[in-house]
Design a protein that fits this description.
With 660 residues, the chain is α+β, with helices and mostly antiparallel strands. The protein has helices at 15-37, 47-68, 70-73, 77-97, 101-111, 114-117, 121-136, 143-168, 186-190, 209-218, 222-232, 237-257, 263-268, 276-309, 319-330, 335-339, 344-359, 447-464, 485-490, 497-503, 515-523, 529-546, 555-562, 592-609, 615-626, 634-642, 649-654; strands at 173-176, 193-197, 200-206, 361-365, 377-383, 391-396, 408-413, 416-417, 423-424, 427-431. It contains 27 helices and ten strands. The strands form three sheets. It has a five-stranded mixed beta sheet. It has a three-stranded antiparallel beta sheet with strand order 1-3-2. A two-stranded antiparallel ribbon has the order 8-9.
């Protein structure tokens, strides 16, 4: 049984093997589709139409999840290049599948049968979604316009691959002397690449999260902070501005051909929000509520800056530094000191303990599982009560050159009911860029990294604990503005004193995080919550503006016009949109982070009513939210878990807006 959790032999992969496997997946799919469409209309059944379609597409889904995934994580340039090429080919192949006339005719024929009329639950939802997708692909349009829509979707696949490649391969940073690294700990400095400039040894601070974020928060040198910030705001390069602007043009043309006023209208139709107007109103309302808190945040930072420097100027490249100084002075919380209590092994043990307790599962390391890099670890998932493993997840946690630069959960194989009645075992991977171990000390996670770890691992649980019968609704295949809610809820455990005390341990002394330090961290949780939330509102508003009526094609002009939302002036000569990876994949959907946060915070109130580690509430969460995937609407999932209508009270309280 456990053997069926093994995927491809990642270590033995070559570009040729990868290409052969992806080619074979498409060949098998073609063969199965041919058999599906050959069935006469009068013999159409659920089994020989919808189930046959899922079975046909599965090899391509797995090739994408396992082989194309190498584009994000392989350390081998040739293999990564081949994977990126096949990522594009497989995506285009799936686009082509969704535009096949004969396949549409087969599904339409089945939809007209008595069996189709008698479908219920997940299967009725599946048929309804399939027909909806064909409408949204232009099957109500004349053939010529439909072909134009397809060509635009193909082009969007190419642009997506190019945009991500330009970000992943973009290398920049600053070279500084040892003296210019004042304020940063020795162990962190040891991890920096050393370079020689005109006979002087310097240290390179790159744009990777474990380097840029601590530097921006701890370097007292405003000039260097500005230089690094401006480089970061040009990530992806001017080439990516052009890629993005062409993509927005293509998306807008698709939407208009399909009868929508904008790409935002097209995208939100199938989300919880329903309309772009609902999103715009949500963001405007939230901005108004948050503005007074952001003003208080800025006032507090300016007062400290004035006391320290004689000037109350706080620029956009300064706020992280003054935020950190306030943490250290007003709350006695030093990010690097706190990190000493979070060695990676202890965090993993604590994370596992929390999730195992809450969700009734057991994680066991799988040392013989095939892996793609020496840093990668694999774990099997079984019921806590015993039995064989039913899922697996990988953890790839440290930065490498050309590796995916953020933190995310990838589905390598989705869970689904096979035609023989057995359940296909899901496999996922968490890919992150946490602080690496050094010669002097283990990997020590800053508290923000601990929160990120809990968040992304929530996605892993969503993907591996799924019990959806149909691949269409497996795991995180929910509405795009709901998918973050389960993970955002699980961030709350990183702020629970009892939980933190349970797994934090000083890497030298072994002592847990002192109670007073935990209390200070919790007290400081809302420090600058206004400024930080306005940044998220800005990103969401920018994304929405790019994809709404009235956008005129110049992404930098729109960026400049909207930048005031952040509370800081726009920095001339920069184009943050070139490195804003979410503009592909989350296009017209970035608001979903804030939207789903409302539901995540509301769901946590169930645990506040019982206790953070209450297994009964945890199992209720597993059954009503995680296992069901996208089998019902997100709003219904939340109502079923809460036993009431959701509201935003907990979300506003979480931002420190109790007076709102």
């Amino acid at each position: 049984m456990a053997g069926s959790l093994d995927l491809v032999d990642f270590g033995a992969l070559t570009p040729e093997k990868l290409a052969g496997a992806c080619d074979e997946a498409m060949r098998v799919c073609d063969e199965r589709i041919a058999a599906l469409v050959a069935v006469p209309d009068e013999k159409r059944t659920f089994a020989n139409t919808l189930l046959a379609l899922e079975e046909a597409a599965e090899p391509v889904s797995q090739a994408s999840g396992q082989y194309a995934f190498m584009a994000y994580v392989s350390a081998d340039d040739a293999l990564r290049g081949a994977a990126r090429e096949w990522d594009e080919k497989l995506d285009k192949y799936l686009v082509g599948l969704s535009f096949r006339e004969d396949l549409y005719a087969a599904i339409r024929a089945f939809a007209g049968t008595a069996e189709a009329a008698g479908l219920s639950g997940e299967d009725a939802r599946w048929l309804e979604h399939e027909l909806r997708d064909y409408r949204r692909n232009g099957f109500d349009l004349p053939a010529e316009q439909r072909q134009r829509v397809r060509r635009l979707f193909d082009e969007l696949v190419e642009l997506d691959v190019q945009f991500r490649k330009n970000i992943d391969e973009y290398e920049d940073g600053i070279a500084v002397t040892r003296e210019q690294l004042a304020g940063l700990p020795e162990a962190w400095i040891e991890n920096l690449q050393q370079v020689d400039e005109a006979g002087t040894r310097k240290y390179r601070v790159s744009l990777d999260y474990p380097e840029i974020q601590p530097f921006m928060a701890n370097s007292p040198d405003q000039t260097l902070r500005r230089e690094l910030f401006e480089k970061e705001q040009r990530k992806g390069g001017a080439a990516n501005v052009a890629v993005l602007e062409r993509a927005i043009q293509a998306r807008t043309e698709v939407a208009r051909l399909l009868g929508y006023d904008s790409w935002a209208a097209y995208r939100t139709e199938v989300r919880m929000a329903g309309t772009r107007q609902a999103v715009a109103e949500f963001l405007a309302d939230l901005r108004e509520r948050v503005a007074p808190k952001a003003e208080r945040d800025m006032r507090e930072m300016r007062q400290l800056a004035k006391a320290r420097t004689g000037s109350d100027e706080v620029n956009i490249w300064d706020w992280r530094y003054w935020h950190n100084e306030l943490l250290k002075t007003a709350y006695a919380v030093d990010d690097f000191e706190v990190a000493k209590y979070f060695p990676l092994d202890a965090v993993i043990a604590g994370l596992f303990d929390v999730y195992q307790t809450l969700l009734g599962v057991r994680f066991t390391e799988a040392p013989n599982a095939p892996r793609w890099h020496a840093d990668v670890r694999a774990f099997d998932v079984a019921e806590a009560a015993g039995g064989e493993p039913f899922a697996r997840f990988y953890m790839d946690l440290f930065p490498r050159p050309n590796k995916y630069g953020h933190a995310a959960a990838f589905t390598l194989r989705r869970g689904r009911m096979r035609p023989d009645g057995s359940y296909q075992q899901p496999v996922s991977a968490i890919v992150a860029n946490f602080t690496k171990p050094s010669a002097a000390q283990p990997s020590l996670l800053r508290h923000t990294e601990v929160v990120t770890f809990f968040h992304e691992f929530g996605h892993i649980m969503h993907q591996t604990l799924t019990r959806a019968r149909r691949a269409r609704f497996s795991g995180t295949a929910t509405e795009g503005d709901f998918v973050e809610a389960p993970s955002q809820m699980l961030e709350h455990w990183c702020w629970e004193p009892a939980v933190l005390a349970g797994f934090s341990r000083h890497f030298e002394t072994g002592s847990p995080l002192p109670r007073e330090l935990v209390e200070s961290m919790v007290a400081a949780k809302n420090l600058n919550s206004g400024v930080m939330t306005l940044r998220q509102i800005f990103f969401a508003t920018l994304d929405l503006a790019y994809h709404s009526p009235g956008f005129e094609g110049d992404t930098t002009a729109t960026l400049r016009a909207l930048h005031e939302i952040t509370g800081f002036p726009y920095t001339e000569g920069t184009h943050l949109q070139s490195g804003f990876g979410h503009l592909f994949g989350y296009d017209a959907g970035y608001y979903g982070y804030l939207w789903s946060h409302v539901f995540g915070d509301d769901m946590y109130t169930r645990f506040e009513e019982t206790s953070p580690l209450d297994t009964g509430t945890g199992m209720h969460y597993r059954r009503t939210i995680l296992e069901r995937g996208g089998t019902v609407d997100g709003g219904q999932l939340v109502r079923d878990f809460l036993g009431r209508e959701p509201n935003n009270a907990a979300f506003l309280r979480g931002l420190g807006l109790t007076d709102a």
